[in-house]
Amino acid sequence: TFALNPGKAESNLDYLVHLDKLSSLGVLDPHSIDIAADSYHRYKEDVQMAARLKLKVFRFSFSWPRILPTSNASEPNPLGVQHYHNLINEILFYNMTPLATLYHFDHPQSLETFNGWWGFEMVDKFAEYATFVINEYGSKYSLIEPLIVELCIRVTKGGSGGKGGTGGMPPSPSIGLEIAAWKGGKLPDNTHVKMWTTVNEPNVLCTFFRLLYKTAGLKKIEDMDHLVCQRHALLAHARAYRALEQSNHTGQMGLSLALIPAVPASTSAEDVYAANILNEMFAGILYHPVVYGDYSEVWAFK
């Protein structure tokens, strides 16, 4: 919850779950989910566990209201901005690739004044936010320089050359920075956050959240056409992609969807057609414009 995160603004999710109106969906105590995995405070443990599993990629998401609590790029939250620098440094230190998600369902509650993702203004605000994040985190110093890691190990183990750290893990990245400064060295600027996703699962965002808002009595279902929401999410994705393309940073950026593929019950033309239509409605409507630049002919209603 925003109350436990210094500088973070109230998000749409904070507001929703504390209304005490979602009991029909299983949210009986609005404060019972204030603390979940608590990665904000325990990110080092999370990264170290991933390293012990020998994972190569560490995916995480930025919290929009933590970084830009007023939604204005001119008013960032320094504590929130620094948190993600610390997290990315930790990921890089353990030689994993950070996969950064710009948006995973939370935005400043203040953006609901124009109906959130059902308002076109959201596209412009998301582009502003995405540009800030890309410029802030798109280029990071590498903490995986072999010499620096070796120096870290030798210093923390008294020159023994052992693996060092609790549970066989390397020491903190800050030690590497101190050693580099002491040796007069310069960490090479050769590691970027090169892998990005934009809006996480807009097909879920634009359907499940309709149910949440309706159940909470905040919006009428007729005011939340999921196709309008999905169109705005696509435009926001495109604006973020262009922001990366036009920046000085290199990398890859994509759109992540929840895929629940339909398989025909038989080889009959009717079953094949029905499965294709469902796949188009759930995923094709979003992937087709990204790949081909326009909607599928399935959506060319007559």
UniProtKB/TrEMBL annotation:
InterPro entries from the UniProt entry: GH, Glyco_hydro_1
Swiss-Prot/TrEMBL keywords: Glycosidase, Hydrolase
One matching Pfam family: Glyco_hydro_1
GO biological process: carbohydrate metabolic process
Molecular function GO labels: beta-glucosidase activity
Keyword Hydrolase: yes
SUPFAM superfamilies for this protein: (Trans)glycosidases
Family: Belongs to the glycosyl hydrolase 1 family.
Protein name as it appears in the record: Uncharacterized protein
Organism: Frankliniella fusca
Highest classification ranks of the organism: Eukaryota, Metazoa, Ecdysozoa, Arthropoda, Hexapoda
